[in-house]
Amino acid sequence: MASLQGILGAGCIARVYEGTLNGQPVAIKIRRENVEELKLCQEALASNPLEFLQLDFQFLRCAASLAETLWPNLKWLMLQSALKDFKHYMLSQVDLRHEASNLNRFAENFGHGIAQVPRVFASSERILIMELVQGQSLSSFLQNEKDPELRHKVWSILSDQAAKMVLVDNFLHADLHPGNVLVTMEKGRLGSMAPKLTFIDAGMALELPELLVDQLKLAMHGALSNDADLLGQALVDLHRAEGLCTDTSPSLPHRLGVLGLCCVFTCDEALWGQLFQTRADYMGARTPEYFNRMAAIMTDHEVRVSPVLWSLLTSFALVEGSLHELGFKTNVLRSCLPYLMSQRLDIFRRAWGSFRCSVSEMLNAGQVPQQVLAV
Predict the structure, then answer these.
(1) Which of 27, 5, 24, 10 is closest to 128 using CA atoms?
(2) CA atoms within 13 A on the CB side of 190
(3) With CB atoms counted within 10 Å of each terminal CB, which end of the chain scores lower, N or C?
């Protein structure tokens, strides 16, 4: 049996309570039942928040359509597609079984590392019972913890896990603001205390298509080789594959590549001077600024921005905000490099294994000298 105690937090969709389940402390998330609790005023809809959300989205669709009519260049931002994705994320949060599924998937992806999510004990459409994680939110940690070494450790875990979610898991927590990251201290292997992060409120998660991840990897390889055209071409190919780009101008991949290099590296003035007026503007630019500039380039070349790329950058902007609050700049290359290199090594190992198997088969057939296998 589960019992409720004090309230831990509340949002527009649900409240989270501290409680017990068979004597064990748990967190119990309960969806708000009616529109009055949601602080919405339409009494006719009070029995079903889904109806009100549907009306909200109808209004937003009309607003997006009107905006695209008044400002035609907005069509390149794919507002209707972005709104469709947003609707999917919002409606999925109303059914707490969806969040339970996300938590279970994150738990499998994270394993027993330095990042985790609460364990799920039970779930239904309206109720989610989870492990009660004792820790302080990243917001509180930022206010209370002044040790730069400890703050850097938290920064490192958060940035590395964000890269892993994108490049390895293809599944990203889409709402990682400081309130949804809990910091706990645990004893490490050498006896010293080390931070561990718990990601909560996983109702919004982004499934990354394989095409997007592959093109992002190509873009990062272009960044590693300092090749603006290779980096930009990967982004162009992504949009062409989605039927969003017909432009064949060589200036498009170059402009996108320069933008990408400036985003992941500290470049010299020959590059950042193509985008920013001053070095201070360049060094102060963050993800939303780069996204705005990318959208402007896309508009110039009449390319519609990929909705899933838009969602990814929006999610990453939240992570970046947390990283900057910790006092360190976002280092995309540092975070992604281990996963890019490990994948290259995996490819080499698989190729080498296939080669040895082929040679073994040929040897058994008497076609290859025995010395070949000594390599």
Answers:
(1) 27
(2) 2
(3) N
Residues 164 and 91 in one domain: yes
Q: Are residues 58 and 198 in the same domain?
A: yes
Nearest in space to 178 (alpha carbons), one of 203, 142, 144, 153: 142
The reply to whether 225 and 134 lie within a common domain is no
| Same-domain status, 239 and 368 | no
Domain that holds residue 323: 208-330
Residues 346 and 317 in one domain: no
- Tell me how far CA of residue 293 lies from CA of 66, 125, 237, 238, in angstroms: 24, 41, 19, 18
Task: Report whether pLDDT(50) > 80.
Answer: no
pLDDT over threshold 90, residue 201:
yes
Helix pair 210-224, 228-241: axis angle to 10 deg: 170
Neighbours of 141 (CB within 10 A): 22
- CA torsion sign for 284, 291, 138, 13 is positive
Q: Is 374 exposed, middle or buried (0-12, 13-18, 19+ CB in 10 A)?
A: exposed
- How do 120-123 and 14-21 pair as beta strands? unpaired
User: What tens digit of pLDDT does each residue of 293-323 get?
Assistant: 988 898 889 888 887 888 888 888 888 888 8
Phi, psi of 225 (to 5 degrees): -90, 5
How distant, in Å, are the alpha carbons of 210, 332, 348, 374 from that of 345?
20, 20, 5, 21
Q: Is the same domain home to 241 and 148?
A: no
Structure tokens given for 314: 């929006």
Of 199, 174, 172, 186, the residue nearest 117 (C-alpha): 199
What's the per-residue H, E or C state across 139-194? HHHHHHCCCHHHHHHHHHHHHHHHHHHHHHHCEEECCCCHHHEEEEEEECCCCCEE
Q: Give the pLDDT score at 223.
A: 82
| Model confidence at 53: pLDDT above 80 | no
Locate 225 and state its tokens: 């080789």
DSSP 26: E
Same domain, 214 and 347: no
Tokens of 84: 């469709």
| Domain identity same for 152 and 221 | no
